Amino acid sequence: METLETLLEAIAPTTATSREILNPATGEIVGHAPVHGVADLDAAVAAATQAQVAWGSKSHAERSEILVRAADAIDASAEALAQLLTREQGKPLNGPNARFEVGGCSAWLRTAAALELEPEVVVDDGENHAEVHYRPIGVVGAIGPWNWPMMISIWQIAPSLRMGNTIVVKPSEYTPLSVLALAAVMNQVLPAGLLQVVAGDREVGARLSSHPAIGKVMFTGSTATGKAIIRSSADTVKRLTLELGGNDAGIVLPDADPKAIAGDLFWGAFINTGQTCAALKRLYVHEDIYEDVCHELTLVAKAMPMGVGTDEANVLGPVQNKAQFDIVANLVQAAKDSGARVLLGGDPDPEQKGYFYPTTLIADIDNDNPLVAEEQFGPALPIIKYTDLDEVLTQANGLEVGLGSSVWSSDKAKAREVAARLEAGTVWINKHGGVHPLIPFGGIKQSGYGLEFGVAGLKALGVPQVISA
Ligand code: NAD
């Protein structure tokens, strides 16, 4: 069982250069991260290639047993991992935040370990017998973002290892310690070479996505970087799973109960202080209940404490970094300048230590306002009034991205009809953004391709091979 101090010791840099990682809530030093380069990546890929031979030849049951032990190791050090995550990422310990994220890592790993993936018999008619098997790919490369650094890494690591691959992970430059610590804990039980973390910059990411010995890249991050990875992976024809940016719409139908849905609307939009790929980022509300929804949502939002993550009372934290803080601040300022109505927030305190942007709700805003049309990825929600269902569907579907969306109604059948007309990889009804280790998740349009989680997610980490007799 690790403590925060022993964890930081375990991941102390051994590289020639290292850099300070600062707490986005306080500016205090959290720890030091190694600065790995392309040569470190090449060495990691060579070790992963070697280790994959023995790991890939183990049975599913043998691999599962080891992965369950890795999940036990995460549970044993869960509090230390959460304490580190809070300090580096900023998210509070409580609420759907750091402790929740570490718990999710264990849950996803256990689910991947428990899933069965039998060969599929696709034809057996006496004349032909054909089966589809899923063989290991080899070495997988993973690149992740800074918003859910541990959870998203485990989404990449768990199915990769389960399917007999080894993996090299390149975390975001903003949150390397969280991923290094998660791997260090798992590596207490994993055989050497299976899981390695290379804490490098974009150059290392670019090398990873063009590396000849890497067979697949799992990427979660922005659409712009996803496109760069498609290009750099082309020459080696790598398999790709791309979980990219989103700008999820939620549509509240006129029969919804504003008071009943306000809490779930709030967390759909503000989970992880709005820094979530599939968060509710544009809320469309029918004119009949528009003022009531605005009122109820404001009441809920006002009651949610924001502050330093290690204070047990807080459920909202800072924006993780200055660049993202500026994006949110500029989008809200542009909305205010356009004459939109501020229901709450919108006025960051220039004297405030840390990148705290207040919980912000903006009403009476046009659909083409940048706060609606662009991904804010922070604690500011635009609420757009609509009158006509066809028109609001056109608006909701009008962007190039399609990760998640939601429909809110007292009539589930009606909500399903609307859901079928939304262009998104997932449509939630009367909730937004919840993921589950057995339910496939992935985007459409420019939110990416490939599915994660469940059996579909395991298949994405294997190469299909048909045996035809
Ligand atoms: P980002 O694209 O800036 O960075 C993600 C990772 O890519 C980092 O590790 C970075 O070092 C690396 N990278 C940058 N340039 C690269 C290159 N040319 N080649 C290879 N790697 C490169 O994203 P971010 O700012 O860290 O994360 C925020 C974005 O991620 C948002 O758009 C959000 O919607 C998206 N996101 C999507 C999901 C999802 O599941 N769809 C989940 C979380 C975040």
Automatic annotation (TrEMBL):
Record-annotated active site: 243
EC number: 1.2.1.39
PANTHER family, sorted: ALDEHYDE DEHYDROGENASE-RELATED
One of the record's GO molecular function terms: phenylacetaldehyde dehydrogenase (NAD+) activity
Homology family: Belongs to the aldehyde dehydrogenase family.
Record has Membrane as a keyword: no
Name of this chain's protein: Phenylacetaldehyde dehydrogenase
Pfam families from the UniProt entry: Aldedh
Domain of life: Bacteria
Keyword annotations: Oxidoreductase
Enzyme type, top EC level: oxidoreductase
Domain annotation Aldehyde dehydrogenase: ranges: 17-460
Organism: Paeniglutamicibacter cryotolerans
